[in-house]
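User: Please fill in residues for this 426-position structure.
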């Protein structure tokens, strides 16, 4: 099988199709002999910060001499981004060979009823590839929710729960409902590193932990960031972990939320290693960190920043990071949002910093109509003009911006994915 054939088969399974049951993924991994049980696992759930935290856990473990693989989602340009080993994406040949092996099991389950979904396939592919490498630790980012997410077939010896908020309407309309879905990754014997939560989310997590016999370790109580200062290209910080303190750290990511994700990642690594992480390993891991599409600078004069904020909490974190890290004369927003998202909440969070918006539609099939999104922006007090695409909106923003202005491309990781090649290939 060639890489292109594997991707075509995967794409035919319909990215975004989700059926709330673990039946199919369990059948697939059972047929394969449950490769996800061959190595210890870290499970990362939450609403915002999952991908960055997952990548940082992988980096800290690898800097400590432990071979770690990570599954993240979604990808920005190539599906290979989702499966990494110590930060390196899976090679095309390995992807194709592993997929060819997996397809035999997929087809067996397909014949029994509903086809295995796109994300279920990727979760199974990661489980199999990690076992084949083999990795010493697998770090799995939840795709959506927790209880019914395809990654929830792992044992989750260690878990991380990033801040929980409202996002996917399929998960519930209240914080309690969403937290109930996220809490599904907590199992008997799981030790979970929990970022700061709203009181109602924390209560749900604590109830689930008591029910199944899991242990929760909370930000601000068991670990945290006691020192944080701005630095050129990012920030300087100290992390108080579960087993040690790490000072003089450089993190080339912007925003307080990034520093707190780093603290959660270090705490998770300490649990996996069952010891303090070496100070040099932490310094090396954080100093080389990157998180594409998360407060990512891709051009200057004017400054262009891309961020995948796709819910009000993410937009609020972006607004805070912008105000902390950058100076500008005017801020032009290039905005494209999916029609299932809280566009009003996103616009309201960004409105105080925004001069005007250039609205477009991403290439995702569920992209919100630009005219409708323009009305949303204007309700939030942002003057806005509709364009057919993200690229057209960027053309207009670049034409309007001077060298001291800031263009922020946001609203979805799919918006970022549409915009990013323009700057990387330019």
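Assistant: Residues filled in for all 426 positions:
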């Amino acid at each position: 099988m060639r890489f292109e054939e594997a991707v075509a088969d995967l794409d035919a399974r319909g990215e975004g199709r989700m059926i709330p049951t673990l039946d199919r993924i369990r059948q697939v991994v059972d047929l394969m002999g449950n490769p996800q049980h061959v190595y210890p696992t870290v499970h990362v759930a939450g609403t915002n910060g999952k991908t960055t935290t997952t990548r940082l856990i992988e980096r800290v473990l690898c800097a400590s001499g432990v071979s770690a693989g990570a599954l993240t989602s979604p990808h920005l340009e190539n599906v290979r981004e989702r499966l990494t080993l110590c930060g390196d994406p899976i090679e095309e040949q390995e992807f194709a060979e592993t997929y060819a092996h997996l397809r035999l099991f997929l087809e067996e389950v397909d014949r029994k009823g509903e086809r295995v979904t796109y994300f279920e396939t990727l979760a199974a592919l990661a489980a199999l590839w990690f076992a084949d490498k083999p990795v010493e630790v697998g770090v799995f980012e939840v795709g959506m929710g927790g209880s019914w997410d395809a990654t929830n077939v792992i044992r989750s010896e260690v878990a991380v729960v990033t801040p929980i908020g409202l996002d996917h309407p399929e998960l519930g309309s209240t914080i309690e409902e969403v937290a109930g879905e996220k809490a599904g990754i907590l199992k008997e014997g799981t030790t979970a590193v929990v970022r700061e939560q709203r009181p109602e989310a924390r209560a749900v997590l604590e109830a689930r932990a008591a029910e199944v016999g899991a242990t929760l370790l909370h930000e601000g109580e068991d670990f945290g960031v006691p020192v944080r200062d701005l630095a050129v290209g990012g920030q300087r910080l100290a992390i108080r972990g579960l087993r040690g303190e790490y000072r003089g750290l450089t993190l080339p990511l912007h925003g307080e939320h990034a520093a707190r994700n780093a603290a959660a990642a270090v705490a998770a690594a300490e649990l996996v290693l069952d010891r303090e992480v070496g100070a040099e390993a932490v310094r090396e891991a954080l100093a080389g960190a990157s998180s594409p599409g998360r407060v990512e600078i891709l051009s200057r004069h004017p400054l262009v920043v891309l961020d995948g904020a796709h819910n009000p909490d993410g937009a609020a974190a972006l607004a805070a990071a912008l105000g902390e890290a950058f100076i500008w004369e005017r801020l032009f927003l290039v905005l494209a949002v999916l029609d299932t998202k809280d566009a009003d909440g996103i616009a309201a969070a960004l409105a105080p910093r925004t001069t005007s918006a250039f609205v477009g539609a991403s290439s995702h099939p569920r992209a919100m109509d630009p005219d409708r999104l323009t009305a949303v922006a204007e309700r939030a007090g942002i003057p806005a003009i509709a364009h057919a695409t993200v690229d057209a909106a960027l053309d207009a923003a670049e034409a309007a911006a001077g060298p001291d202005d800031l263009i922020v491309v946001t609203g979805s990781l799919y918006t970022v994915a549409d915009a990013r090649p323009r700057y990387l290939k330019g």
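For context: Residues 3-287 form a domain with the UDP-N-acetylmuramoyl-L-alanine:D-glutamate ligase fold (CATH 3.40.1190.10).
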